[in-house]
Design brief:
Largest sheet: 7 strands, mixed
Bound molecules: glycyl-adenosine-5'-phosphate
Structural class: alpha+beta
Strand order of the largest sheet: 3-10-11-17-14-13-12
Oligomer: single chain
Radius of gyration: 26 Å
Number of strands: 24
């Protein structure tokens, strides 16, 4: 992971936020190639789930939103992380992550013995040891597990920062970011930065249904920033306080559509997208169903697609059956009708929803991790070509030969309206190849002396390093075919 983080900074994918002022915890900026990669991921998501689906429409709702939305949705009361402080070094961390990491690091034999010993007398503790997941458990349950781990005689729960075993009590910490609108007095001026884009979809459900020719089942999807005042454990952009997500609320009539097969359809669609479109290796992915205690307050069933990151197997994409929870809450709180009428039966329907939700920035981190390869003296990002920040790089063989540089500029002008194209005439050609390999550019085009005679160039493939001789006039169709393959 350290190597990937270093490459991401050095080559302009990800920079620490507010760096020249000493940094701001859990914030990041995306550099030139990072911005391209993120844009490509978002475009592919949009194309796959909105553009190509006749049953899903897009939305772009606001970030600053009425406090009543978040009260009705349950986030003001229930959207909180459990946190704990080390009394010795004052480090603050998420209690669930502290406990999970500790359980994962335990000697398997000791863990087995404890599961057996506590099975009858402390079910919460023995269950936590068994499944290794405690996210979403109540503060009381977490505190029970924490106390038991702290009291273990052999290897008690110690602070990962200072190594001491002196803890405060676990307590909840709300994740929403409040904002005060400058010109509005009192309660009216109190708003929140959205903690999920989903609420923008629910509160616009009737607007979309009334202004578009949609019929159940149908989805509304959007990509946008969301904000969570999270305590995080590093790991680059895996968990940040500001991030972009892509969320779809897929509405259906529970009287006519069964949720279980729909849930399976969504699992397949997500798997297909991650493996086929993003080109992620299947061996690094798995589905995991949430335990009842772990599920969000609004969900009847949740499954996460998880990815094997270097720092553990972690949630990539959540799929939740949110029922009619949100529409009901907003209907009750706003006193507005949010049901829709079936045009055939004239019956009023309050739809249920299945929600696939994924962090775009988390997808970006996964793409970098999955693509990172070291081989034969080079570092290569084997990113799927359609995601690569630059598709092509153009080089004149020698920088000091004016006619080669002029020809290379012409090739750049031909390619750059069609593809993100880099131009490089610094250093020797071998170094330029290595430099493009590191940012995942799939093809490098070199203009050499033969080009001046016969208008052909060499095209070098990132993964095989093989070179083809191609006519300049064929380059656009050559790359287009490869990108569409
Ligand atoms: N509307 C559902 C929802 O918000 P979530 O599991 O909390 O569900 C959805 O978030 C997805 O957003 C996650 O699967 C993950 O990919 C991403 N995500 C969540 N918190 C994040 C954070 N702090 N930083 C980056 N990505 C995050």
């Amino acid at each position: 992971m350290d190597k990937i983080v270093a490459l991401a900074k050095r080559r302009g994918f990800i920079y620490p936020g507010s760096e020249i002022y000493g940094g701001l915890a859990n914030t990041y900026d995306y550099g030139p190639v990072g911005a391209e990669l993120l844009r490509n991921i978002k475009n592919l998501w949009w194309k796959n789930f909105i553009q190509k689906r006749p049953d899903i429409v897009g939305l772009d709702s606001g970030i600053i939103s009425h406090h009543k939305i978040w009260e009705a949705s349950g986030h003001v009361a229930g959207f909180a992380d459990a946190m704990i402080d080390c009394k010795h070094c004052k480090a603050r961390m998420r209690a669930d992550h502290l406990l999970e990491n500790y359980i994962e690091s335990m000697d398997p034999k000791i863990r087995e013995d404890l599961i057996r010993a506590y099975g009858g007398k402390n079910k919460d503790f023995s269950n936590a040891l068994k499944v290794g997941k405690v996210e979403g458990l109540s503060v009381e349950m977490l505190e029970n597990i924490r106390v038991n781990l702290s009291n273990l005689p052999t290897k008690p729960l110690i602070c990962p920062n200072c190594g001491e075993n002196e803890w405060t009590k676990i307590r909840k910490f709300n994740l929403l970011f409040p904002v005060q609108l400058g010109i509005v007095e009192g309660e009216q001026g109190s708003a929140y930065l959205r903690g999920e884009t989903a609420q923008g979809i629910f509160i616009n459900f009737r607007n979309v249904a009334d202004s578009n020719r949609v019929r159940l089942p149908f989805g509304i999807g959007q990509i946008g920033k969301m904000f969570r005042n999270e305590i995080t454990a590093g790991n680059s952009v895996f968990r940040t306080i500001e991030f972009e997500a892509g969320e779809i609320e897929y509405f259906f009539d529970p009287q006519t559509t069964k949720w279980e097969p729909l849930f399976e359809e969504w699992k397949n669609a997500i798997w297909e997208f991650v493996t086929k479109q993003l080109g992620i290796q299947e061996k690094n992915l798995r589905w995991r169903e949430h335990e009842e205690e772990e599920r969000s307050f609004y969900s009847m069933r949740t499954e996460d697609l998880e990815y094997h990151f270097p720092f553990g197997t972690k949630e990539l994409w959540g799929l939740a059956y949110r029922t009619d929870y949100d529409l009901t809450q907003h209907m009750n709180a706003s006193k507005k009708e949010l049901m829709i009428v079936d045009p055939q039966t004239q019956k009023k329907i309050l739809p249920h929803v299945i929600e696939p939700a994924v962090g775009m920035t988390r997808l970006l981190l996964m793409v970098l991790v999955d693509a990172y390869t070291e081989e034969e003296g080079r570092t290569v990002l084997k990113i799927a070509p359609k995601l690569a920040p630059y598709k092509v790089a153009v080089f004149p063989l020698l920088a000091n030969k004016e006619d080669l540089v002029a020809k290379a500029r012409k090739v750049f002008e031909l390619l750059s309206p069609e593809f993100m194209t880099a131009f490089d005439d610094r250093g020797n050609i071998g170094k330029r190849y290595l430099s493009q390999d590191e940012i995942g550019t799939p093809w490098c085009v070199t203009i050499d002396f033969d080009t001046l005679d016969n208008d052909t160039v060499t095209v070098r493939d990132r993964d095989t390093t093989k070179q083809d001789r191609i006519k300049i006039s064929d380059l656009v169709s050559y790359f287009t075919d490869k990108l569409e393959a």
